[in-house]
Amino acid sequence: MAWDFSTEPEFQEKLDWVKEFCEEKVEPLDHIFPHAVRVPDPAVKAYVRELQQEVKDQGLWAIFLDPELGGPGYGQLKLGLLNEVIGRYPGAPQMFGAAAPDTGNMEMLAAYGTEEQKERWLKPLLNQDIFSAYSMTEPQGGSDPSLFKTTAVQYGDEWVINGEKWFTSAGRVADILFVMCTNGMFIVPRDTPGVEIMPEPRNHNHIIYRDVRVPLDHLLGPPNGAKVLAQRRLGGGRIHHAMRTVAQCNLAFDMMCERALSRESHGKIISDHQMVQEKIAESYAAIKMLRLFVLETAWKIDNTSTQDARTEIAAVKFTMAKVLREVSFNALHILGSLGTTDLTPIQAMYATAPTMGIADGVDEVHIATVARRVLRDYRPHEGNFPTEFLPYKREEARKKMQPVLDARPELAAAAEAYQKYLQRRR
Protein backbone atom coordinates (compact mmCIF):
# COMPACT_ATOMS: atom_id res chain seq x y z
CA MET A 1 0.00 0.00 0.00
CA ALA A 2 1.57 3.29 -1.11
CA TRP A 3 0.89 5.75 1.67
CA ASP A 4 3.86 7.79 2.80
CA PHE A 5 4.48 11.22 4.32
CA SER A 6 8.27 11.01 4.30
CA THR A 7 10.80 12.75 2.06
CA GLU A 8 13.57 10.85 0.28
CA PRO A 9 16.88 11.33 2.14
CA GLU A 10 18.59 12.65 -1.00
CA PHE A 11 15.97 15.34 -1.52
CA GLN A 12 15.89 16.16 2.18
CA GLU A 13 19.58 16.99 1.85
CA LYS A 14 18.63 19.47 -0.87
CA LEU A 15 15.99 21.02 1.39
CA ASP A 16 18.48 21.28 4.24
CA TRP A 17 20.97 23.00 1.93
CA VAL A 18 18.28 25.46 0.77
CA LYS A 19 17.32 26.28 4.36
CA GLU A 20 20.93 26.96 5.38
CA PHE A 21 21.63 28.93 2.20
CA CYS A 22 18.58 31.14 2.77
CA GLU A 23 19.35 31.70 6.46
CA GLU A 24 23.04 32.43 6.02
CA LYS A 25 23.11 34.31 2.72
CA VAL A 26 19.72 35.27 1.29
CA GLU A 27 18.11 36.71 4.41
CA PRO A 28 21.09 38.96 5.30
CA LEU A 29 21.17 40.25 1.72
CA ASP A 30 17.41 40.99 1.91
CA HIS A 31 17.99 43.33 4.83
CA ILE A 32 21.05 45.08 3.38
CA PHE A 33 19.86 45.28 -0.24
CA PRO A 34 16.10 44.79 -0.55
CA HIS A 35 15.22 43.67 -4.11
CA ALA A 36 18.93 42.98 -4.69
CA VAL A 37 18.25 41.16 -7.97
CA ARG A 38 17.08 44.42 -9.55
CA VAL A 39 19.77 46.67 -8.04
CA PRO A 40 21.84 48.07 -10.96
CA ASP A 41 25.03 48.60 -8.94
CA PRO A 42 27.74 46.34 -10.50
CA ALA A 43 29.08 45.23 -7.12
CA VAL A 44 25.63 44.14 -5.92
CA LYS A 45 24.87 42.47 -9.23
CA ALA A 46 28.15 40.55 -9.11
CA TYR A 47 27.40 39.27 -5.60
CA VAL A 48 23.88 38.24 -6.60
CA ARG A 49 25.31 36.32 -9.55
CA GLU A 50 27.70 34.50 -7.19
CA LEU A 51 24.82 33.38 -5.00
CA GLN A 52 22.75 32.36 -7.99
CA GLN A 53 25.65 30.29 -9.28
CA GLU A 54 25.62 28.37 -5.99
CA VAL A 55 21.95 27.61 -6.62
CA LYS A 56 22.72 26.48 -10.17
CA ASP A 57 25.54 24.26 -8.92
CA GLN A 58 22.98 22.51 -6.73
CA GLY A 59 20.70 21.94 -9.73
CA LEU A 60 18.00 24.13 -8.20
CA TRP A 61 17.77 26.94 -10.75
CA ALA A 62 14.37 27.50 -12.43
CA ILE A 63 12.93 24.72 -10.28
CA PHE A 64 9.41 25.24 -11.62
CA LEU A 65 10.24 24.03 -15.15
CA ASP A 66 9.92 20.42 -16.28
CA PRO A 67 12.95 18.75 -17.96
CA GLU A 68 11.48 19.11 -21.44
CA LEU A 69 11.14 22.83 -20.77
CA GLY A 70 14.69 23.23 -19.49
CA GLY A 71 14.26 22.79 -15.73
CA PRO A 72 15.25 20.14 -13.18
CA GLY A 73 11.82 18.48 -13.36
CA TYR A 74 11.22 17.88 -9.67
CA GLY A 75 7.45 17.78 -10.10
CA GLN A 76 4.89 19.75 -8.11
CA LEU A 77 5.27 17.83 -4.85
CA LYS A 78 9.01 18.42 -4.50
CA LEU A 79 8.54 21.92 -5.84
CA GLY A 80 6.00 22.50 -3.08
CA LEU A 81 8.48 21.37 -0.43
CA LEU A 82 11.12 23.71 -1.87
CA ASN A 83 8.69 26.62 -1.92
CA GLU A 84 7.85 25.94 1.70
CA VAL A 85 11.46 26.85 2.51
CA ILE A 86 12.14 29.73 0.12
CA GLY A 87 8.70 31.27 0.71
CA ARG A 88 9.85 32.40 4.15
CA TYR A 89 12.37 34.84 2.67
CA PRO A 90 11.28 37.71 0.38
CA GLY A 91 14.38 37.59 -1.83
CA ALA A 92 14.73 33.81 -2.10
CA PRO A 93 12.47 33.16 -5.11
CA GLN A 94 14.55 35.56 -7.21
CA MET A 95 17.73 33.86 -6.05
CA PHE A 96 16.37 30.55 -7.32
CA GLY A 97 15.13 31.99 -10.63
CA ALA A 98 11.60 31.19 -9.52
CA ALA A 99 9.88 34.50 -8.77
CA ALA A 100 6.44 35.53 -9.98
CA PRO A 101 5.37 36.91 -12.36
CA ASP A 102 8.38 35.70 -14.38
CA THR A 103 7.81 32.03 -13.48
CA GLY A 104 4.42 31.76 -15.16
CA ASN A 105 5.51 33.82 -18.13
CA MET A 106 8.59 31.65 -18.63
CA GLU A 107 6.45 28.53 -18.41
CA MET A 108 4.20 29.84 -21.18
CA LEU A 109 7.20 30.72 -23.31
CA ALA A 110 8.84 27.35 -22.71
CA ALA A 111 5.65 25.44 -23.54
CA TYR A 112 4.27 27.50 -26.42
CA GLY A 113 7.06 29.72 -27.74
CA THR A 114 8.81 29.24 -31.04
CA GLU A 115 12.54 28.58 -31.01
CA GLU A 116 13.13 32.20 -32.03
CA GLN A 117 10.87 33.47 -29.22
CA LYS A 118 12.66 31.31 -26.68
CA GLU A 119 16.03 32.61 -27.85
CA ARG A 120 14.82 36.22 -27.79
CA TRP A 121 12.92 36.22 -24.49
CA LEU A 122 13.07 32.94 -22.54
CA LYS A 123 16.84 32.74 -22.18
CA PRO A 124 17.19 36.37 -21.01
CA LEU A 125 14.32 35.82 -18.52
CA LEU A 126 15.94 32.67 -17.18
CA ASN A 127 19.24 34.54 -16.80
CA GLN A 128 17.45 37.54 -15.22
CA ASP A 129 18.90 39.81 -17.86
CA ILE A 130 15.33 41.04 -18.38
CA PHE A 131 12.11 40.90 -16.32
CA SER A 132 8.47 40.51 -17.30
CA ALA A 133 4.91 41.22 -16.17
CA TYR A 134 1.55 39.59 -16.83
CA SER A 135 -1.09 42.00 -18.15
CA MET A 136 -4.36 40.10 -17.82
CA THR A 137 -7.13 41.58 -15.66
CA GLU A 138 -9.20 44.58 -16.78
CA PRO A 139 -10.97 47.35 -14.85
CA GLN A 140 -14.48 46.34 -15.87
CA GLY A 141 -13.96 42.58 -16.33
CA GLY A 142 -11.69 41.65 -13.46
CA SER A 143 -10.20 38.22 -14.18
CA ASP A 144 -13.13 36.95 -16.29
CA PRO A 145 -11.80 36.52 -19.86
CA SER A 146 -15.33 36.49 -21.25
CA LEU A 147 -15.61 40.17 -20.28
CA PHE A 148 -12.25 41.30 -21.66
CA LYS A 149 -12.20 44.03 -24.29
CA THR A 150 -8.50 44.36 -25.13
CA THR A 151 -8.02 43.31 -28.76
CA ALA A 152 -5.23 42.85 -31.27
CA VAL A 153 -6.04 43.54 -34.92
CA GLN A 154 -3.71 42.56 -37.72
CA TYR A 155 -2.67 45.29 -40.13
CA GLY A 156 -0.15 44.06 -42.69
CA ASP A 157 2.83 42.64 -40.84
CA GLU A 158 1.85 44.07 -37.44
CA TRP A 159 -0.63 43.56 -34.64
CA VAL A 160 -2.27 46.71 -33.29
CA ILE A 161 -3.35 46.36 -29.66
CA ASN A 162 -5.97 48.55 -27.99
CA GLY A 163 -7.38 48.16 -24.52
CA GLU A 164 -6.93 48.74 -20.83
CA LYS A 165 -5.39 46.45 -18.22
CA TRP A 166 -5.60 46.70 -14.46
CA PHE A 167 -3.29 45.27 -11.77
CA THR A 168 -0.36 44.35 -13.97
CA SER A 169 2.01 43.54 -11.10
CA ALA A 170 5.53 44.95 -11.60
CA GLY A 171 4.52 46.31 -15.00
CA ARG A 172 6.37 49.56 -14.40
CA VAL A 173 9.72 47.80 -13.98
CA ALA A 174 9.20 45.03 -16.55
CA ASP A 175 11.07 44.83 -19.83
CA ILE A 176 8.33 42.86 -21.59
CA LEU A 177 4.60 42.54 -20.96
CA PHE A 178 2.54 39.43 -21.64
CA VAL A 179 -0.77 40.97 -22.75
CA MET A 180 -3.87 38.78 -22.78
CA CYS A 181 -6.17 39.89 -25.59
CA THR A 182 -9.52 38.54 -26.67
CA ASN A 183 -7.83 36.83 -29.61
CA GLY A 184 -4.48 35.69 -28.23
CA MET A 185 -1.50 36.22 -25.92
CA PHE A 186 0.98 38.87 -27.10
CA ILE A 187 4.47 39.84 -25.97
CA VAL A 188 4.86 43.59 -25.84
CA PRO A 189 8.12 45.39 -24.93
CA ARG A 190 7.24 47.93 -22.25
CA ASP A 191 8.86 50.83 -24.12
CA THR A 192 6.68 50.26 -27.20
CA PRO A 193 4.91 53.50 -28.25
CA GLY A 194 1.35 53.53 -27.00
CA VAL A 195 2.04 51.65 -23.75
CA GLU A 196 0.91 54.13 -21.10
CA ILE A 197 1.43 53.22 -17.45
CA MET A 198 -0.80 55.20 -15.09
CA PRO A 199 0.74 56.85 -11.98
CA GLU A 200 -1.34 54.71 -9.60
CA PRO A 201 -1.30 52.04 -8.30
CA ARG A 202 2.46 52.05 -7.93
CA ASN A 203 3.15 48.30 -7.66
CA HIS A 204 0.20 46.68 -9.46
CA ASN A 205 -0.01 48.88 -12.49
CA HIS A 206 -2.91 50.22 -14.50
CA ILE A 207 -1.83 50.17 -18.16
CA ILE A 208 -3.55 51.62 -21.21
CA TYR A 209 -2.64 50.24 -24.65
CA ARG A 210 -3.32 52.80 -27.38
CA ASP A 211 -2.57 51.64 -30.91
CA VAL A 212 0.37 49.59 -29.67
CA ARG A 213 2.07 48.02 -32.69
CA VAL A 214 4.10 44.82 -32.47
CA PRO A 215 5.36 42.47 -35.22
CA LEU A 216 3.33 39.38 -36.11
CA ASP A 217 5.85 37.09 -34.40
CA HIS A 218 4.99 38.63 -31.03
CA LEU A 219 1.90 36.41 -30.82
CA LEU A 220 2.64 33.64 -28.31
CA GLY A 221 1.00 30.33 -29.04
CA PRO A 222 -1.94 29.89 -31.41
CA PRO A 223 -4.41 32.63 -32.35
CA ASN A 224 -7.31 32.71 -29.89
CA GLY A 225 -5.27 30.52 -27.54
CA ALA A 226 -4.93 32.97 -24.65
CA LYS A 227 -7.26 31.07 -22.30
CA VAL A 228 -5.32 27.84 -22.74
CA LEU A 229 -2.03 29.62 -22.05
CA ALA A 230 -3.50 31.40 -19.03
CA GLN A 231 -4.70 28.14 -17.49
CA ARG A 232 -1.27 26.60 -18.03
CA ARG A 233 0.25 29.58 -16.31
CA LEU A 234 -2.13 29.84 -13.36
CA GLY A 235 -2.65 26.18 -12.44
CA GLY A 236 0.84 25.38 -11.19
CA GLY A 237 1.37 28.96 -10.03
CA ARG A 238 -1.41 28.65 -7.47
CA ILE A 239 0.37 25.68 -5.90
CA HIS A 240 3.62 27.66 -5.73
CA HIS A 241 1.75 30.52 -4.02
CA ALA A 242 0.07 28.09 -1.64
CA MET A 243 3.29 26.55 -0.35
CA ARG A 244 4.88 29.95 0.01
CA THR A 245 1.78 30.93 1.97
CA VAL A 246 2.41 27.93 4.22
CA ALA A 247 5.93 29.29 4.73
CA GLN A 248 4.56 32.70 5.69
CA CYS A 249 2.07 31.11 8.07
CA ASN A 250 4.89 29.15 9.70
CA LEU A 251 6.87 32.36 10.10
CA ALA A 252 3.90 34.06 11.77
CA PHE A 253 3.35 31.01 13.96
CA ASP A 254 6.99 30.94 15.09
CA MET A 255 6.77 34.61 16.05
CA MET A 256 3.47 34.01 17.81
CA CYS A 257 4.79 31.18 19.96
CA GLU A 258 8.05 32.95 20.79
CA ARG A 259 6.15 36.04 21.90
CA ALA A 260 3.66 34.03 23.92
CA LEU A 261 6.50 32.57 25.97
CA SER A 262 8.25 35.93 26.42
CA ARG A 263 5.64 38.35 27.76
CA GLU A 264 3.66 38.62 30.99
CA SER A 265 0.10 39.83 31.42
CA HIS A 266 -2.11 39.85 34.52
CA GLY A 267 0.48 38.09 36.62
CA LYS A 268 1.54 35.26 34.33
CA ILE A 269 3.24 34.44 31.04
CA ILE A 270 0.66 35.08 28.33
CA SER A 271 1.05 31.53 26.99
CA ASP A 272 -0.71 30.41 30.19
CA HIS A 273 -3.86 32.33 29.25
CA GLN A 274 -6.43 30.04 27.68
CA MET A 275 -7.41 32.51 24.95
CA VAL A 276 -3.79 32.71 23.83
CA GLN A 277 -3.57 28.92 23.91
CA GLU A 278 -6.70 28.74 21.77
CA LYS A 279 -5.15 31.00 19.11
CA ILE A 280 -1.96 28.94 19.09
CA ALA A 281 -3.76 25.59 18.89
CA GLU A 282 -6.15 26.72 16.13
CA SER A 283 -3.30 28.27 14.13
CA TYR A 284 -1.25 25.08 14.45
CA ALA A 285 -4.12 22.90 13.20
CA ALA A 286 -4.99 25.27 10.34
CA ILE A 287 -1.40 25.37 9.05
CA LYS A 288 -1.04 21.59 9.26
CA MET A 289 -4.30 21.02 7.37
CA LEU A 290 -3.41 23.56 4.67
CA ARG A 291 0.06 22.07 4.21
CA LEU A 292 -1.23 18.53 3.79
CA PHE A 293 -3.96 19.70 1.41
CA VAL A 294 -1.46 21.57 -0.77
CA LEU A 295 0.98 18.66 -0.87
CA GLU A 296 -1.80 16.21 -1.70
CA THR A 297 -2.89 18.50 -4.54
CA ALA A 298 0.70 18.71 -5.79
CA TRP A 299 0.93 14.92 -5.63
CA LYS A 300 -2.26 14.59 -7.67
CA ILE A 301 -0.92 16.97 -10.34
CA ASP A 302 2.26 14.90 -10.57
CA ASN A 303 0.27 11.69 -10.95
CA THR A 304 -2.46 13.02 -13.25
CA SER A 305 -2.46 16.56 -14.63
CA THR A 306 -3.28 20.15 -13.73
CA GLN A 307 -6.60 19.71 -15.53
CA ASP A 308 -7.55 16.65 -13.46
CA ALA A 309 -6.65 18.50 -10.24
CA ARG A 310 -8.67 21.63 -11.01
CA THR A 311 -11.06 21.13 -8.09
CA GLU A 312 -8.24 20.70 -5.60
CA ILE A 313 -6.27 23.65 -7.02
CA ALA A 314 -9.29 25.94 -6.72
CA ALA A 315 -9.98 24.75 -3.17
CA VAL A 316 -6.34 25.27 -2.17
CA LYS A 317 -6.44 28.77 -3.62
CA PHE A 318 -9.25 30.09 -1.42
CA THR A 319 -8.16 28.07 1.62
CA MET A 320 -4.64 29.49 1.67
CA ALA A 321 -5.93 33.08 1.79
CA LYS A 322 -8.26 32.20 4.66
CA VAL A 323 -5.54 30.48 6.70
CA LEU A 324 -3.04 33.29 6.11
CA ARG A 325 -5.64 35.81 7.24
CA GLU A 326 -6.50 33.87 10.40
CA VAL A 327 -2.96 32.95 11.43
CA SER A 328 -1.50 36.41 10.79
CA PHE A 329 -4.43 37.96 12.70
CA ASN A 330 -3.77 35.68 15.67
CA ALA A 331 -0.05 36.48 15.56
CA LEU A 332 -0.76 40.20 15.36
CA HIS A 333 -2.94 40.05 18.46
CA ILE A 334 -0.43 38.02 20.47
CA LEU A 335 2.34 40.45 19.54
CA GLY A 336 0.07 43.28 20.70
CA SER A 337 0.94 46.84 19.73
CA LEU A 338 4.23 45.67 18.19
CA GLY A 339 2.21 43.60 15.72
CA THR A 340 0.53 46.72 14.36
CA THR A 341 3.84 48.34 13.41
CA ASP A 342 6.16 47.75 10.47
CA LEU A 343 8.93 46.60 12.85
CA THR A 344 8.05 42.91 12.25
CA PRO A 345 6.75 41.10 9.15
CA ILE A 346 3.33 40.53 10.75
CA GLN A 347 1.61 43.75 9.69
CA ALA A 348 2.63 43.32 6.05
CA MET A 349 1.61 39.66 6.18
CA TYR A 350 -1.84 40.52 7.51
CA ALA A 351 -2.22 43.27 4.90
CA THR A 352 -1.29 40.77 2.18
CA ALA A 353 -4.02 38.30 3.12
CA PRO A 354 -6.88 40.16 1.34
CA THR A 355 -4.70 40.43 -1.78
CA MET A 356 -4.14 36.68 -1.71
CA GLY A 357 -7.90 36.30 -1.81
CA ILE A 358 -8.07 38.34 -5.02
CA ALA A 359 -4.87 37.54 -6.95
CA ASP A 360 -5.17 34.78 -9.58
CA GLY A 361 -8.96 35.07 -9.43
CA VAL A 362 -11.13 36.12 -6.49
CA ASP A 363 -11.87 33.48 -3.88
CA GLU A 364 -15.61 33.66 -4.50
CA VAL A 365 -15.09 32.45 -8.08
CA HIS A 366 -12.96 29.54 -6.90
CA ILE A 367 -15.46 28.66 -4.18
CA ALA A 368 -18.25 28.52 -6.77
CA THR A 369 -16.02 26.46 -9.08
CA VAL A 370 -15.30 23.92 -6.35
CA ALA A 371 -18.97 23.62 -5.44
CA ARG A 372 -20.03 23.08 -9.07
CA ARG A 373 -17.33 20.50 -9.73
CA VAL A 374 -17.98 18.61 -6.50
CA LEU A 375 -21.73 18.48 -7.15
CA ARG A 376 -21.11 16.78 -10.50
CA ASP A 377 -20.41 13.55 -8.61
CA TYR A 378 -23.75 13.60 -6.81
CA ARG A 379 -27.37 12.96 -7.82
CA PRO A 380 -30.63 14.06 -6.19
CA HIS A 381 -32.27 11.44 -3.98
CA GLU A 382 -35.59 9.90 -4.88
CA GLY A 383 -38.68 10.64 -2.83
CA ASN A 384 -38.93 12.96 0.14
CA PHE A 385 -36.01 11.76 2.21
CA PRO A 386 -32.22 11.33 1.67
CA THR A 387 -30.53 7.98 1.18
CA GLU A 388 -29.24 8.09 4.77
CA PHE A 389 -32.83 8.33 6.13
CA LEU A 390 -32.63 5.70 8.89
CA PRO A 391 -35.96 3.93 8.22
CA TYR A 392 -34.79 3.40 4.62
CA LYS A 393 -31.41 2.12 5.79
CA ARG A 394 -33.01 -0.34 8.23
CA GLU A 395 -35.35 -1.68 5.56
CA GLU A 396 -32.45 -2.13 3.14
CA ALA A 397 -30.35 -3.76 5.84
CA ARG A 398 -33.12 -6.21 6.59
CA LYS A 399 -33.26 -7.23 2.92
CA LYS A 400 -29.50 -7.78 2.78
CA MET A 401 -29.41 -9.69 6.06
CA GLN A 402 -32.49 -11.87 5.40
CA PRO A 403 -30.63 -14.76 3.73
CA VAL A 404 -28.27 -14.91 6.71
CA LEU A 405 -31.15 -14.78 9.20
CA ASP A 406 -33.02 -17.50 7.32
CA ALA A 407 -29.96 -19.73 7.45
CA ARG A 408 -29.26 -19.07 11.12
CA PRO A 409 -32.40 -19.21 13.28
CA GLU A 410 -30.51 -18.31 16.45
CA LEU A 411 -29.30 -15.07 14.84
CA ALA A 412 -32.85 -14.32 13.61
CA ALA A 413 -34.18 -14.83 17.15
CA ALA A 414 -31.54 -12.48 18.53
CA ALA A 415 -32.45 -9.85 15.93
CA GLU A 416 -36.14 -10.12 16.79
CA ALA A 417 -35.40 -9.84 20.50
CA TYR A 418 -33.28 -6.78 19.92
CA GLN A 419 -36.07 -5.09 17.90
CA LYS A 420 -38.52 -5.72 20.76
CA TYR A 421 -36.00 -4.23 23.19
CA LEU A 422 -35.73 -1.08 21.06
CA GLN A 423 -39.53 -0.76 20.85
CA ARG A 424 -39.81 -0.97 24.66
CA ARG A 425 -37.22 1.79 25.03
CA ARG A 426 -39.26 4.07 22.79
TrEMBL record:
Acyl-CoA oxidase/dehydrogenase middle domain: residues covered: 133-201
Protein family per UniProt: Belongs to the acyl-CoA dehydrogenase family.
One Gene Ontology CC term in the entry: cytoplasm
Residues in Acyl-CoA dehydrogenase/oxidase C-terminal domain copies: 229-375
Entry cofactors: FAD
Pfam families assigned: Acyl-CoA_dh_1, Acyl-CoA_dh_M, Acyl-CoA_dh_N
PANTHER family, per database record: ACYL-COA DEHYDROGENASE FAMILY MEMBER 11 (PTHR48083:SF13), MEDIUM-CHAIN SPECIFIC ACYL-COA DEHYDROGENASE, MITOCHONDRIAL-RELATED (PTHR48083)
Alphabetized InterPro entries for the sequence: Acyl-CoA_dehydrogenase, Acyl-CoA_Oxase/DH_mid-dom, Acyl-CoA_Oxase/DH_mid-dom_sf, AcylCo_DH-like_C, AcylCo_DH/oxidase_C, AcylCoA_DH/ox_N, AcylCoA_DH/ox_N_sf, AcylCoA_DH/oxidase_NM_dom_sf
Name under which the protein is recorded: Acyl-CoA dehydrogenase FadE
GO biological process terms, semicolon-separated: fatty acid beta-oxidation using acyl-CoA dehydrogenase
A GO molecular function held by the record: flavin adenine dinucleotide binding
Subunit structure: Homodimer.
Residue intervals of the Acyl-CoA dehydrogenase/oxidase N-terminal domain: 11-127
Keywords, in A-Z order: FAD, Flavoprotein, Oxidoreductase
